Amino acid sequence: MRPSIFLPFLVACIAYSTPHATGQTEGPRPNEIVQSSAYISMEPVPRGRTFEIGVVAHIRDGYHVNAHKPSLDYLIPTEVRPSLPQGITLSSAIYPEGQMLRFPFSATLLRVYEGNVVFRLRLVAEENAPLGSQEIPMQLEYQACNDHACLPPVKIRITAHLEIAPAGAASTPMHPEVFSPSGDRSH
Which residue from 77, 67, 59, 57 is spatially nearest to 112, judged by alpha carbons? Predict the structure, then answer.
């Protein structure tokens, strides 16, 4: 990390994140910038099958969050962290690439998410997954910024609800608007 890039960014974040420093009234709290929901790709989920959880994040107008793979090392990435119950394993996480945008506080383009974005987790219901209703608690970690300031990083809780069925049970695909290939991009 080069101090010549980091220092101006840090000064801007401190100066603009304090409402009194700019004469602004207090804005939204960091945990109010992103509203999120979790969706399951099939219902029910039979034992032995791969399924997905789609976390749909609605980022408040005028704000952005850093992409999962930010363009600078010191930026805080956006990440979904599941707490998996017995019998459910994570095989991969799919994050959109994000958009490269320029902001007044940075001399370089930054990779960010704005608007609506979908994060997808591919999971497997193992043969020993408990049958019946299950919950998968998750945390969405992000740092929200506007064109002038970055707010403190936060973790918000999300819960996915699913039904585990015996191996070979019939299952119906759900939420094609979330799990289509276009769901992999931020808008």
Answer: 67
- Nearest-angstrom CA–CA distance, 112 and 47: 37
DSSP H helical segments within 18-110, as ranges?
19-22
For the chain, residues with pLDDT lower than 50 are 1-24, 183-187
Q: What are phi and psi of 140, to 5 degrees?
A: -100, 115
Cα 28 to Cα 4, 46, 52, 64, 113: the distances in Å are 30, 42, 32, 13, 18
**pTM: predicted TM-score of the whole model, two decimal places:** 0.82
Residue found by looking up tokens 């497997």 in the block: 124
Structure tokens at 77: 């990435």
Is CATH 2.60.40.1250 what the domain over 3-22+30-184 is classified as, yes or no?
Answer: yes
Task: Report pLDDT digits (tens) over 74-100.
Answer: 999 999 999 999 999 999 999 999 999
